[in-house]
Amino acid sequence: MSESSARSQMSQQRHGSTPGSASDTRANAVPAFPDLPEATIARLPEYLRALHNLGESGADTISSEGLAAAAGVNSAKLRKDLSHLGSYGTRGVGYDVALLIEQIEYVLGLDQRRAVCLVGVGNLGHALAGYDGFASRGFKIVALFDADPAKVGELIHGLAVRHIDELSQVAVEESIAIGVIATPARAAQAVADELVAAGVTSILNFAPCVLSVPANVDVRKVDLAIELQILSFHEHRKATLTALPGGRSATGAENQEAVGS
Ligand SMILES: NC(=O)c1ccc[n+]([C@@H]2O[C@H](COP(=O)([O-])OP(=O)(O)OC[C@H]3O[C@@H](n4cnc5c(N)ncnc54)[C@H](O)[C@@H]3O)[C@@H](O)[C@H]2O)c1
User: Fold this and answer.
1) Ligand 1 lined by 148 (C-beta under 6 Å)
2) Which atom of ligand 1 is nearest to the CA of 188?
3) Probe ligand 1: pick from 146, 165, 183, max atoms within 8 Å of CB?
4) 139 lines ligand 1 (CB under 6 A)
5) Answer CATH for 114-222 from 3.40.50.720, 3.30.70.20, 3.30.2320.30, 1.20.1250.20
6) CA distances from 55 to 89, 93, 112, 223, 233 (A)
7) Cα 181 to averaged position of ligand 1 atoms, centre (Å)
8) Ligand 1 centre from 187 Cα, in Å?
9) Among the CATH numbers 3.40.50.1820, 3.40.50.2000, 1.10.10.10, 1.10.287.370, which is that of 3-107?
10) How do the pLDDT tens digits run along the chain, 261 residues long?
11) In the chain, N or C terminus with fewer CB closer than 10 Å?
């Protein structure tokens, strides 16, 4: 698809003349890109961040190699990912930065601001509640909850902590789409159940445990300890390879693959 027809398709989708537009009801809405691979979805935010940086530095177009380097992935993988969006760039020119930002934001649903609540306002919750990066990327924390009566009423960046018992009422009032769990692991499943009962269908879980949720609920887990364990594996592997006769070490190509996979 050419850049101009991609632009026209996006315009049609936004103005409601194709399935998946804002005028569709939830029941008959068809996702714009139903077959997008999960690995591609996971890389789109990386491309978006790189594109915003390029746009801010004044670039109007970018080659696939340039964008791949800025996003830290390999360029063949990037071209394949973007082809799923119908974006192929223009030979000799590259990708239109502004258009590609618009396309990726559309696919990720970032053209709507999504209300987020945070449950568990301890050490981690305080840091997350104060993180400016959510708002600048289209997410607004609209409510903070905790079970500790001593924390209820505390003001964090202008938002008062509410008791967890208010969750179901506030979730409806604020149209909360995403719940962030930052409670101890022992409380996380009960909190997830309360979020689900309140109609929240996306959960970001920081607690180190596996959550059981209905099929229509998406859960993403963030665990820095797991990331450190993966890095520990690579350290172990490098040390083992270096100790082998001939002292082979990990190559740049292997490292690139690890980042872009
Ligand atoms: N994912 C990561 O990389 C990462 C990093 C640090 C901590 N953590 C995890 O994040 C969680 C929070 O860590 P922390 O250091 O902030 O702990 P913390 O003890 O300082 O804070 C936890 C908060 O949750 C509240 N809470 C407990 N039960 C609750 C419930 N049922 N409903 C609502 N609130 C409840 C507590 O009152 C407290 O304010 C832990 O599970 C920890 O293991 C994850």
Assistant:
1) yes
2) 31
3) 183
4) no
5) 3.40.50.720
6) 16, 15, 21, 31, 37
7) 8
8) 9
9) 1.10.10.10
10) 444 444 444 444 433 333 333 333 333 344 455 578 999 999 999 999 999 999 999 999 999 999 999 999 999 999 999 998 888 788 888 999 999 999 999 999 888 888 999 999 999 999 999 888 887 787 889 999 999 999 999 999 889 999 999 999 999 999 999 999 999 999 999 999 999 999 999 999 999 999 999 999 999 999 999 999 999 999 999 998 888 887 665 444 445 444 433
11) C
Please identify, by atom number, the ligand 1 atom nearest to the C-alpha of residue 125: 16
Task: State the ipTM, two decimals.
Answer: 0.98
Would you kindly state where each structural domain of the chain is located, as residue ranges? 3-107, 114-222, 229-260
Distance between CA 51 and CA 154 in Å, rounded? 38
Residues in the chain: 261
Angle (CA) 95-68-131 rounded to 5° is: 100
Q: Which atom of ligand 1 is nearest to the CA of 121?
A: 39
254 alpha carbon – ligand 1 mean position (Å): 36
Hey, do 3-107 and 114-222 end up sharing a CATH topology, with the first three levels equal?
no
**pTM of the predicted protein model:** 0.79
Task: Name the one residue in this structure whose structure tokens are 């938002």.
Answer: 159
183 lines ligand 1 (CB under 6 A): yes
Which structure tokens are listed for 108?
């990720």
Whole-number Å distance between alpha carbons of 128 and 48: 21
CA–centroid distance, residue 143 to ligand 1 (Å): 16
